[in-house]
Design goal:
The complex is a heterodimer. Helix content of chain A is 64%, strand content 8%. Chain A is mainly alpha-helical. A two-stranded antiparallel ribbon of chain A has the order 1-2. Chain A is elongated, with a radius of gyration of 21 Å. Chain B is α/β, with parallel strands linked by helices. Chain B is 21% helix and 37% strand. In chain B, strands 1, 2, 3, 4, 6, 7, 11, 12, 14, 15, 17 and 19 form a 12-stranded parallel beta sheet that branches. In chain B, strands 8-9-13 form a 3-stranded mixed beta sheet, with no helix packed on it. In chain B, strands 16-18-20 form a 3-stranded parallel beta sheet, with no helix packed on it. The longest helix of chain B has 40 residues. The chains are: A mainly alpha, B alpha/beta. At the A-B interface, strand 2 of A face strand 19 of B. Strand 2 of chain A pairs antiparallel with strand 19 of chain B, so a sheet runs across the interface.
Chain lengths: 134, 262
């Protein structure tokens, strides 16, 4: 059973559920919006969990530092490894953008299971390679 | 000494002897009866103590002849709770459709108290009196200073308006007083609560610890579930808690969520 906070016309009820909210007289569209808000929150938390499962905060900081150092060099002065790192970082940033976009899609379709790996974009190999370096 | 004197003395002696023997018989009977009673008690000490520590009271403010005993009728909540042994589990049933005035402090002394409803149709109302000192308005309350717990279920709680609107509100502003000795425990289930600006169900002032649950309950008006939250530590649990007309779960404090987990 999903619990949510709900407000309507100056009245707020905390930690309630659909059945109780209906009994308290909250309109169905307000209940639906409150339930939707809970699902969006859960999806955002799952998105964040999946991103940090691939790259911890320390790894992300190290990647950003490396990107800054490498980007400061002229492109012609970068080694092959450095160029590979920048490419992998592009893949990683693109993946994060895909994950965020997926949050909206999953929020719009309550039938999709947010715990199913198949419903989230896979980490590209290029991004995985650069994550492994840091 | 005449024969008559000797006969009188013998008669008196026989009467004394008979009286003495009656006394012994009576004493033996009393000893036997009391020994049997003691054997009865000592044979089931657990049951005896359990029975003594479960206290039930029915409160009807209009009953002209309250019995004031376990299982009987009392006129006030205070009389009912304070008649129970310290440390007892006390069930207090308030007569529905009636208003029960709380006009004196109720002392808990480690009792665990359930306050609910019996009879009638509408919920009973606990009418919480407010009073004044020379400088403040204050609220009459339950004082569970040295432990215990309170559960209110299916009763409404209405704090009266302040006696003197020109005086500020004392820190004695909650239905259950704050006290630093131990965690103040309470739950409110199926209660409608209303009152004047700043009063609360519980209070974490002066570094106190409060544990409160508010379930299927309505706070109506400029009141709080917990006041002084920034001055102590609170565990607040809610399920279907409705806030109306400016009510808030707590005054002050910073929430860390409802779960602390290592």
């Amino acid at each position: 059973m999903m619990n949510f906070d709900i407000s309507h016309e100056g009245r707020t009820t905390l930690s309630t559920d659909r059945e109780t909210a209906e009994a308290l007289g909250y309109p169905d569209e307000v209940i639906a919006a409150a339930e939707g808000g809970v699902r969006t929150g859960l999806i955002k938390a799952e998105c964040r969990r999946r991103i940090y499962a691939e790259a911890s905060a320390e790894t992300q900081m190290n990647m950003a530092t490396a990107a800054a150092v490498i980007s400061a060099k002229e492109a012609s002065a970068r080694t092959e490894d450095e160029a590979s790192i920048l490419s992998g970082l592009d893949d990683a940033i693109g993946w994060v953008a895909q994950m965020r976009a997926r949050v909206i899609e999953l929020a719009d379709d309550a039938a999709l299971d947010i715990g199913d790996d198949a419903n989230w974009p896979p980490l590209p190999d290029g991004a995985r390679d650069v994550v492994d370096k840091f | 000494m005449s024969i008559a004197d000797i006969n009188n003395a013998a008669t008196a002696m026989n009467q004394l002897k008979a009286r003495y023997e009656d006394f012994l018989d009576d004493a033996d009977a009393q000893i036997a009866a009391r020994r049997a009673a003691y054997d009865g008690l000592s044979g089931d000490l657990v049951g005896l103590i359990s029975n003594q520590m479960k206290f039930t009271a029915f409160v009807d403010p209009d009953d002209p002849a309250p019995t004031n005993v376990d299982g009987g009728v009392f006129n006030t909540i205070k009389e009912a709770i304070e008649a129970a042994p310290c440390g007892a589990y006390v069930t207090v049933r308030l007569h529905g459709d009636k208003t029960h005035i709380l006009d004196n402090f109720v002392y808990g002394f480690n009792r665990s108290v359930l306050i609910g409803k019996y009879g009638g149709v509408e919920r009973p109302i606990i009418d919480v009196v407010t009073k004044t000192s020379s400088s403040h308005n204050y609220v009459v309350s339950f004082r569970f200073d040295v432990g215990g717990a309170l559960k209110f279920t299916d009763v409404d709680i209405a704090f009266r308006p302040f006696v003197d609107p020109n005086l500020s509100l004392s820190s004695d502003r909650s239905l259950i007083s704050y006290h630093p000795y131990c965690v103040q425990n309470a739950q409110f289930d199926l209660c409608n609560v209303s009152g004047p600006d700043g009063v609360s169900l519980m209070n974490a002032s002066a570094g106190c610890r409060v544990s409160v649950g508010m379930v299927n309950t309505v706070l109506d008006g400029p009141i709080f579930g917990v006041s002084g939250a920034s001055f102590g530590a609170c565990v607040i649990s809610t399920h279907s808690l409705t806030l109306l007309n400016g009510a808030e779960v707590r005054s002050g404090g910073t929430t860390a969520g409802n779960v602390l987990q290592k």
